[in-house]
Amino acid sequence: DAGVIQSPRHEVTEMGQEVTLRCKPISGHDYLFWYRQTMMRGLELLIYFNNNVPIDDSGMPEDRFSAKMPNASFSTLKIQPSEPRDSAVYFCASSLVGTPGYGYTFGSGTRLTVV
Amino acid sequence: QKEVEQNSGPLSVPEGAIASLNCTYSDRGSQSFFWYRQYSGKSPELIMSIYSNGDKEDGRFTAQLNKASQYVSLLIRDSQPSDSATYLCAAERGSSYKLIFGSGTRLLVRP
Questions:
Q1: Are B90 and B104 in contact (CB under 8 A)?
Q2: What percent of chain A has pLDDT over 70?
Q3: Nearest residue of B to residue A34 by CA position?
Q4: Using an 8 Å Cβ cutoff, are A91 and A106 in contact?
Q5: What's the pLDDT at A1?
Q6: Residue A45 DSSP code
Q7: Phi and psi, residue B37, nearest 5°
Q8: Is B101 on the interface with A (CB under 8 A)?
Q9: How many Cβ atoms sit within 10 Å of the Cβ of residue A2?
Q10: Residues of A near B (CB-CB distance < 8 A)?
Q11: Residues A68-86: tens digit of each pLDDT
Q12: A104/B49 Cβ within 8 A
């Protein structure tokens, strides 16, 4: 299995622009999570999906952030408009919850820089 | 109080020694706990999970859980320089399948 695939690996954008981050989870996994990691705040859960349905978006910082999962093999996280404080590494993770030792498998992340 | 707390370190140990990493959590409803390793510039990777009080061993790694004290630890025996990384403790919030991560402990293994 290729693991969780995220794109792009790096994104540099100007303040005010729209940014779309993409994620392909591991086939067969039923949960998908979006996290953001910064030095100051560590790993923060933004939103997660179960069988493509958003379950909890309480971690989404503002209305500028939105996420979708149109099918079991694809999810997007969109920031519109982007701001410099959104600069972080964004990770997507997937899991087959309930299996022994399930944990999450993380993608390689997208390093976002907003200038 | 953070939901999952770890000492940020760095914890420095000589090669071959036992490294002991600790974590406390505040949600008494948490039932599942995980240790992840993250190398600089890389994504977190799962090392171990633990659900029951006591010890769980996997190779050089031993996870320990004490639910009464709300305490989780990870022991790394025969530490190697390649073990130098940040170790993240995570607790499942209630039965939500949401993992809440600590800020991580940086481990340095000196050759």
A1: no
A2: 97
A3: B98
A4: yes
A5: 65
A6: E
A7: -115, 135
A8: yes
A9: 7
A10: 31, 33, 35, 42-43, 45, 48, 50, 56, 91, 95, 97, 101-109
A11: 999 999 999 999 999 999 9
A12: no
Distance between CA atoms of residues A85 and B7, nearest Å: 26
With an 8 Å Cβ cutoff, are B98 and A48 in contact?
A: yes
Q: Which residues pair with B70 in a beta bridge?
A: none
Cβ–Cβ gap B100/A31 under 8 Å: no
- Please state, in angstroms and rounded to a whole number, the distance separating the CA atoms of residues A107 and A56: 20
Q: What mean pLDDT is reported for chain B?
A: 94
| For range A53-63, the mean pLDDT | 93
Task: Give the per-residue pLDDT at A28.
Answer: 92
> Is pLDDT at B34 greater than 70 in this prediction?
yes
- What b/e sequence results for B9-38 when a residue is b if at least 16 CB atoms lie within 10 Å of its CB, and e otherwise? eebebeeeeebebbbbbeeeebebbbbbbb
Chain A touched by B18 (CB under 8 Å): no
Range from A23-27, A75-79, B25-29 carrying the lowest mean pLDDT: B25-29
Nearest neighbour of A43 by CB, restricted to B45, B97, B101? B101
Q: Is B49 on the interface with A (CB under 8 A)?
A: yes
Confidence of residue B2 (pLDDT cuts 50, 70, 90): confident
Query: Do A69 and A30 contact (CB within 8 A), yes or no?
Result: no
Of A94, A93, A73, which Cα lies nearest the Cα of A29? A94
